[in-house]
Amino acid sequence: MFLEGSPVALTLGRPDGDNPLVLVNPRFGELTGYTQADLAGRNCRLLQGEVDDKEARARLRAFLRDDTMPNVRTPILNFRKDGTPFVNLLYMSRLRGLGGETRFIFASQFDVSRAQAERLAEYDRTLDQTLTRLSPIAAESGIIVEGTLTTIANSAATIAQAKLTIATLDDGAVL
């Protein structure tokens, strides 16, 4: 399967209920320490731990509530399975059926904890390539990948948000 071989950490979740995960790829496991077996049927919010990253969580809730929002991209404080914190640049998009219904929530994750701008640019290029390759594969199954390249193009604002989150972590403040 294409997602399993992707160099980008990817997940697929159901659009209903508590948005349980149906797939996490091996790269996600490398990033977080969690495997498919650990997370199948569970919500990815377990990565957030006990820290209340209010702004990021509000953006994610707004995306999940509003079916007309095609995507969201935000840095959010997450924790690996071993408890190590990292700033995750989270991108979520809807995969829609030809009738317009949301079939899956597609997400990519990238550790920006100590990332340099050139690494973020490389991540954007890799994610763009992943989405470009995913679109025709999804289309064969009657699924449309929504709102992808516009969000990736807004990297400067997202990088600034990530730097603020990192600065807060470096100061020892709890979000």
List keywords for this structure.
six-stranded antiparallel beta sheet, alpha+beta, 175 residues, globular, 24% strand, Beta-Lactamase, 6 strands, 39% helix
Brief rundown of the structure:
Keywords: Chromophore, Flavoprotein, FMN. With 175 residues, this protein is of the alpha+beta class. It has 6 helices and 6 strands.
Summarize the structure in words.
This is PAS domain-containing protein. It holds the Pfam family PAS_9. The structure is a single chain. With 175 residues, the chain is an alpha+beta fold. The protein starts with 8 loop residues before the first strand and ends in a 5-residue tail after the last helix. It has a single domain (3-170), classed as Beta-Lactamase, CATH 3.30.450. It has helices spanning 26-32, 36-39, 54-65, 117-140, 149-153, 155-170, and strands at 9-13, 21-24, 71-79, 85-97, 102-109, 143-145.
Question: What's the story with the biggest beta sheet?
Answer: 6 strands, antiparallel
Strand content: 15-25%
Shape annotation: globular
The structure class reads: alpha+beta
CATH architecture classification name: 2-Layer Sandwich
Taken in chain order, the helices and strands follow as EEHHHEEEHEHH
Poorly predicted runs are 149-157
Q: What's the tally of helices? A: 6
Protein name: PAS domain-containing protein
Domain PAS: 1-67
Keywords: Chromophore, Flavoprotein, FMN
Organism: Novosphingobium silvae
Secondary structure: elements and pairs:
Elements: E1 9-13, E2 21-24, H1 26-32, H2 36-39, H3 54-65, E3 71-79, E4 85-97, E5 102-109, H4 117-140, E6 143-145, H5 149-153, H6 155-170
Antiparallel strand pairs: 1-2, 1-5, 3-4, 4-5, 4-6
Keywords: Chromophore, Flavoprotein, FMN
Organism: Novosphingobium silvae
Pfam family, one: PAS_9
